[in-house]
């Protein structure tokens, strides 16, 4: 049993309390490799933003859970080296799919876990989430639960349509499970293709697809039921069109990729939404930079020469999210 406290990590409790009160949101960035992690830490250290490093099932399969945990421990020391005196860094399990997975992460030093029972019948979701909370809280590890289903793919769970969170269920769920934060469904979804062209309208000026707005009425009803309770938004990439254009210009084939407009995330960040999950945008930033190098310098074969620009581009993206969208800069 390794305590996250010995690794210099923190849980989400204080961080979320301050974010809800302060009207901003904490970035939860997924990481799978060293360049992503470096970019996240450089961006957080430079802006003094609390940050959540999240590890998905795909990341654990790709990079190994133990290695990722040691990388996060290294990230705390790296942040200090960069001049961030008191780094506020959470290591979080994203979309935990079983009690055993959550326990294994808690036992090896994660400071926060998500148990995603959103695809289960309600009572089973309650029972599973409660079991994880009871275990996690013994070690002061915080737990995110989920109610409502996002369209698209949540790791291996896929749903054709989203089912918004039912505001009438949230008090019962939070009370029975004791979870510390709640992921909700209000129209976001995972990946870079969040809406079909048919669901969007065309902006005649830019020629871009404009997605339907998020269900802020559902969010408001949830906040009314659970005043001040930390709310989480998954699937919150904005799919920056300049990155998509660069990818397509240099040989990619990402047609009709569309995300959540930044102004909607800005609005959400000012509410009880205090954790915003971003993964796809980082993948786009990395891919755009790598494609550009490959196209312009076909003789290049030193990975540092294309992963370096990829890292720079991700860092720029993370700083933009922190300062211009979530408002979490200078909060740590
Ligand atoms: O929730 C989905 C995340 O973007 C993680 O995706 O399992 O492919 O790493 P992944
Ligand atoms: P995006 O695919 O929109 O980046 O969402 C990531 C996410 O929710 C991870 O849990
Ligand atoms: Zn997610």
The computed structural class is: alpha/beta
CATH C-level label: Alpha Beta
CATH superfamily: Aldolase class I
Q: Any guess at the CATH architecture?
A: Alpha-Beta Barrel
Q: What kind of sheet is the major sheet?
A: 8 strands, parallel, barrel
Question: What gross morphology would you assign?
Answer: globular
The count of helical stretches stands at 12
Determine the fraction of residues in helical runs and give it as a percent range: 40-55%
Low-confidence stretches: 153-157
Query: What is the averaged pLDDT score?
Result: 95
Tell me the count of domains. Answer: 1
Strand share of the residues? 15-25%
Strand element count? 12
Tell me the series of helices and strands, N- to C-terminal. Answer: HEHEHHEHEHEEEHEEEHEHHEHH
The CATH topology turns out to be TIM Barrel
Strand order of the largest sheet: 1-2-3-4-5-8-11-12
Rg (CA only): 19 Å
The bound ligands are: glyceraldehyde-3-phosphate, 1,3-dihydroxyacetonephosphate, zinc ion
Gap between N and C termini? 28 Å
Question: Could you describe the 3D structure shown?
Answer:
This protein has 332 residues and is of the alpha/beta class. The protein has a single domain (4-326), classed as TIM Barrel (Alpha-Beta Barrel). It has helices at 13-22, 34-47, 57-63, 65-81, 99-107, 122-137, 167-177, 216-225, 241-249, 262-269, 280-296, 303-326, and strands at 26-30, 51-55, 89-96, 112-115, 142-147, 152-154, 157-159, 181-184, 201-202, 209-210, 231-233, 273-278. The strands form three sheets. The protein has an eight-stranded parallel barrel with strand order 1-2-3-4-5-8-11-12, surrounded by ten helices. It has a two-stranded antiparallel ribbon with strand order 6-7. The protein has a two-stranded antiparallel ribbon with strand order 9-10. β9 and β10 form a beta hairpin. α7 crosses α8. The model is unreliable at 153-157 (pLDDT under 50). 1,3-dihydroxyacetonephosphate (13P) is lined by residues 30, 94-95, 190-191, 234-237, 277-281. 1,3-dihydroxyacetonephosphate (13P) binds next to β3, β12 and α11.
């Amino acid at each position: 049993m390794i305590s996250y406290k010995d690794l210099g990590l923190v849980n989400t409790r204080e961080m979320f309390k301050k974010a809800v009160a302060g009207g901003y949101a904490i970035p939860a960035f997924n990481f799978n490799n060293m360049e992503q992690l470096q970019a996240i830490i450089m961006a957080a250290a430079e802006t003094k933003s609390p940050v959540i490093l999240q590890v998905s099932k795909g990341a654990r399969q790709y990079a190994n859970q133990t290695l990722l945990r040691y990388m996060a421990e290294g990230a705390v020391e790296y942040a200090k080296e960069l001049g961030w005196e008191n780094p506020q860094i959470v290591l979080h399990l994203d979309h935990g799919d079983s009690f055993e997975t959550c326990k294994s992460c808690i036992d090896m030093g994660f400071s926060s876990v998500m148990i995603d029972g959103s695809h289960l019948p309600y009572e089973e979701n309650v029972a599973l989430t409660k079991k994880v909370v009871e275990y996690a809280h013994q070690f002061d590890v915080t737990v995110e639960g989920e109610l409502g289903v996002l369209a698209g793919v949540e790791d291996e769970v896929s749903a054709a349509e989203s089912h918004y969170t039912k505001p009438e269920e949230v008090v019962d769920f939070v009370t029975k499970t004791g979870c510390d934060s709640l992921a909700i469904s209000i129209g976001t979804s995972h990946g870079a293709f969040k809406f079909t062209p048919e669901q969007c309208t065309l902006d005649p000026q830019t020629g871009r697809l404009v997605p339907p707005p998020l269900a802020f009425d559902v969010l408001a009803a949830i906040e009314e039921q659970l005043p001040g309770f930390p709310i989480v938004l998954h699937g919150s990439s904005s799919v920056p069109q300049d990155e998509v254009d660069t990818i397509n210009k240099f040989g990619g084939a990402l047609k009709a990729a569309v995300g959540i407009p930044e102004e909607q995330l800005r609005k959400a960040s000012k509410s009880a939404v205090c954790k915003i999950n971003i993964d796809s945008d980082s993948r786009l930033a990395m891919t755009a930079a790598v494609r550009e190098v490959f196209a312009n310098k076909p003789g290049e074969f030193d990975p540092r020469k294309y992963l370096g620009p990829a890292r720079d581009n991700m860092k720029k993206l993370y700083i933009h999210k922190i300062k211009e969208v979530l408002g979490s800069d200078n909060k740590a």
